[in-house]
Amino acid sequence: MSKRAVLEVIALDVEDAVAAQAGGADRLELVTDMAADGLTPSAGTVAAIRAAVDIDLRVMLRLADGFAAGDVDRLTRLAGRLREAGATEFVLGFLDPDGEVDLHAVERIAGALHGCRWTFHRAIDRAANRDALRKQLGDFPGLDTYLTAGAAGGVDEGMTVLLAEARRRGEPGYEQQLLVGGGLRLEHVPGLLAAGIDAFHIGGAARPSGWEGPVSAEAVREWRGVLGD
């Protein structure tokens, strides 16, 4: 396990980004429209946040709620515009109606990233077979992280899966980092750290007044303290 666990915070705008960095976040996930669980932000927003902070940014590539890819051509064009705006890391993940990974969409969009690092997001928690998904994506260029709660219902439901996957780190399909998020609470952290999990993702936990309010540097700092400096 790395000496410093990664803390990733969802940011919607510059205010969020600055507060998250001040609190000790290592990386931001940039999205818009949390009512739809996070969609692709504008290139202007990405450029403004990139100018305001110097920590890593991962930008969501997702057009609508759910895990269907939708307009893949549009997503590939968006990826190009976001790269022009300064994005170098991304978040994506698509399933077909049967819960299998949508390889066509992932191949097209990942190809448009030209080697940029990216996270396969919580679509894995809705997959028909997460082990098969991991093995299908095992050698995809740029894929270095899975954002997962272990189950669709969140970390409470998925803890057993998270611990089991942590034990498989380094096996074929399990080389990528586990980034745990989705109903994650501070009391989950010690057990996850003890299992060797070294990356954590928070959204609402960084916003004491809810999604209508901004990220709190103090809330992020509390998480940073629990994870270790």
TrEMBL record:
Gene3D superfamilies, A to Z: Copper homeostasis (CutC) domain
Single GO MF descriptor: copper ion binding
Pfam families: CutC (PF03932)
InterPro entries on file: CutC-like, CutC-like_dom_sf
PANTHER family referenced in this protein's UniProt entry, alphabetically: COPPER HOMEOSTASIS PROTEIN CUTC (PTHR12598), COPPER HOMEOSTASIS PROTEIN CUTC HOMOLOG (PTHR12598:SF0)
Similarity section: Belongs to the CutC family.
Record's protein name: Copper homeostasis protein cutC homolog
Naturally occurring in which organism (per UniProt): Streptomyces parvulus
